[in-house]
Design goal:
The chain is of the alpha+beta class. It has twelve helices and 26 strands. Helix 5 crosses helix 9. The longest helix is centred in the middle third of the chain and has 16 residues.
Length: about 575
């Protein structure tokens, strides 16, 4: 077996500085030994993957669910393992990479609840000639702490301090398989799963796309009707959770939402999901198909719905394989004037991107709080002018770039913190987290078969060559400006962008830059919408009458009237405007 370390000589110095200056931890010359193995009973074959160890001082739940870059961060460490044999022991060294404690030998004294988990990798031989080891999705949406088939240990209490202690962990548990999605179908919600020829050819193994389809009320009673289609983009949907047939369960214990400062938020969610059911089945709600897509990649919980050098042709697979199959099965109109796309955050970027890259295939995109759509404002980094993503340099000091704020501008994490957590969870862009996924989608392929780094993951130094590749292929604002002569006539009236002015991830910055161009267009004028929510956080979606906590539960109700307005005003001669309006 080989164990690959992610530390570097540069990091050895950086980690000490961060430990002493930032975290204030007590550095000890020695740390107890920690060894991890797995029994032959859980796997008789050698395994590849990322071995992750969490040292938590939180009392509730399992440590594997305590990994975050926010204020509640608990120490996590990781090493790559290859050809790891049953019963063979892997030992953590004093330089094992971690976050928020930079190195294992800097772990402060104290009592911890400790747990280990192996995020298993498989070997893919891609059509581009590269062989890579990555974690395949197992139906959970690339969540390593919940991925079926991953091995994990029991939770062990362990005290550090005094010397001489040692800890041995056994990965004797296996995360269970998930139920078949088809068991979650209802009269209104159906599940579709297809093998993608395009993706299977790229990855060298069978690859699948899935979708949840919300059928219009009266679907079976109107066999002659053909329907418009709306793709609701977002993170991996394990079910169609936006609609609930039953009224809210008032006997269910209340759950407080720390994000929204709301008690009983679980009941509020149920209330608005039931409201969608009531409106969806009413006499006057516009009939159409609503589709949420399962398109996880070996890098993330979704592909960003575009073609990618590292992920393969997901954009074409969705548009040319999955969408036509959905429209065939459920009587979609199947024409661009009757298709729309919307979503928030990741889904907001995807909604705008597919409208830009497939301009004739959609009649409108409603992009809420989109991920950066102009890489001059890649959150708070200008990829084309800045030299370092983590630090603002001045003659006598360095200032850390912020990563996340609240509506008052108070910061609880920085860019280097978020990226160092990702490096603890996975090398070679394999963490399954946000900054790595952008890299996996936007970057060219490196010589080793993995995505080229946009910046050095340790230091934050930006690679201008990779930035230029991103600009030419995925900077939506730049592409609009570069290609407006041909894109403009196809996108007139189709782009609708919404973002809060206090977006937690500074996503409003890129929207400002994009709006400057869109409002200056004259041939033709873009004719769409760019709106801002005053003091609103992530993910404001254009509803001026409701707070985020509520508007995020009403995407279908919000955008359906705008879609209907577009279709009635913008359709080809002879278009079917009647069969679905019963």
């Amino acid at each position: 077996m080989s164990v690959k370390r992610s530390a570097s000589p540069l990091y050895a110095t950086t980690a000490v500085a961060l430990c002493l200056v930032v975290t204030g931890c007590q550095v000890s010359p020695t740390r107890p030994g920690v060894e991890v193995s797995f029994p032959a009973g859980v796997s008789s074959e050698p395994l590849d993957g990322r071995l992750i160890l969490v040292f938590s001082q939180r009392d509730e739940g399992e440590p594997r669910f305590h990994v975050t870059d926010g204020a509640g961060a608990q120490p996590v460490f990781g090493v790559d393992v290859e050809a790891w044999e049953p019963e063979e022991r892997v030992a953590l060294s004093d330089t094992t990479f971690g976050f928020p404690v930079g190195r294992f030998d800097h772990l402060p004294e104290g009592t911890y609840r400790v747990q280990a988990i192996l995020n298993r990798y498989e070997t893919f031989t891609r059509s581009d000639g590269h062989t890579v080891k990555l974690p395949p999705d197992r139906g959970e949406g690339q969540q390593w702490a919940r991925k079926p088939g991953n091995l994990y240990s029991d939770v062990v209490e362990f005290a550090i301090g005094g010397g001489g202690e040692s800890l041995s962990l056994s990965l004797g548990n296996v995360i269970a398989e998930l139920p078949d999605p088809e068991t979650l179908e209802t009269d209104w919600v159906k599940f579709v799963r297809i093998r993608s020829d395009l993706l299977s050819d790229f990855w060298g193994t069978d690859m699948y796309l899935g979708a949840w389809v919300l059928l219009p009320d009266g679907f079976d009673d109107h066999p002659e009707a053909r329907y418009p289609l709306a793709i609701w983009h977002g993170h991996f949907p394990s079910s169609f959770g936006a609609m609930r047939i039953e009224p809210p369960d008032m006997d269910e214990p209340c759950v407080y939402s720390e994000r929204f400062s709301l008690d009983c938020y679980n009941r509020i969610q149920q209330q608005y999901r039931h409201e969608l059911y009531q409106q969806w089945t009413s006499d006057d709600f516009p009939r159409h198909l609503v589709v949420t897509i399962q398109h996880p990649t070996p890098f993330y919980d979704d592909s960003y719905a575009v073609n990618s050098a590292n992920n393969g042709p997901y954009g074409d697979a969705i548009m040319h394989e999955l969408v036509p199959e959905i429209e065939r099965r459920f009587r979609g109109i199947g024409e661009g004037w009757a298709r729309f796309t919307y979503g928030g955050s990741t889904g907001g970027w995807e909604a705008m991107a597919v409208q830009v890259f497939y301009p004739d295939d959609f009649n409108g995109a409603f992009a809420a709080c989109p991920d950066p759509i102009d890489f001059r404002a890649y959150t708070v980094v200008d990829l084309y002018e800045d030299e370092n993503a983590y630090w603002i340099d001045a003659p006598f000091k360095r200032t850390a770039r912020p990563g996340h704020r609240d509506w008052l501008g108070q910061i609880d994490r920085t860019l280097w913190e978020s990226n160092h957590l990702e490096l603890a969870l996975g090398t070679k862009t394999r963490s399954g987290q946000q900054w790595d996924v952008w890299e996996s989608v936007y970057s060219p392929v490196g010589d080793d078969g993995y995505p080229k780094r946009i910046w050095d993951k340790i230091t934050g130094e930006i690679d201008p060559g990779v930035a230029e590749f991103w600009k030419q292929n995925y900077d939506l604002s730049y592409i609009l400006q570069r290609d407006w002569e041909t894109l403009g006539p196809k996108l007139e009236g189709k782009l609708h962008i919404y973002v809060g002015e206090m977006d937690n991830y500074y996503l409003n910055n890129a929207v400002y830059l994009t709006e400057e161009f869109l409002e200056s267009t004259t041939d033709p004028y873009y004719g769409g919408v760019v709106e801002y929510g005053a003091r609103d956080e992530h993910c404001w979606n254009g509803d001026h009458g409701q707070p985020n906590a509520i508007s995020r539960l009403r995407y279908v109700q919000m955008y359906t009237p705008l879609m209907l307005e577009r279709m009635l005003a913008n359709h080809p001669p002879g278009a079917d405007l009647t069969s679905w309006r019963y």
